[in-house]
Amino acid sequence: MKYVNANKVLPEKLIMEIQKYVQGEIVYIPKQETEYRKWGTSSGGRQMLDRRNATIRNSFRSGSSIWQLAEEYYLSTETIKKIVYSHKK
């Protein structure tokens, strides 16, 4: 999130209206809901985790234990259980 000076992007009448409610403070203006993206979609982080989790599930089905997977992927056994017992394909 970056700071933008209202004087540079908003019309003077709108600034005057906003000043009725708040002055000299930082105001966060959220994106419209249609602009929201799920976590990791821009960076590719979500895809990376999905691939990792699929690999963990396949290893579990092939006989690796929860404990072995936790050691290999540096995750807790509880996290591995959530991954392998979820219904994602």
TrEMBL record:
SUPFAM superfamilies: Homeodomain-like. This is Mor family transcriptional regulator. InterPro entries: c-mor_Regulatory_Protein, Homeodomain-like_sf, YraL-like. It comes from Anoxybacillus andreesenii.
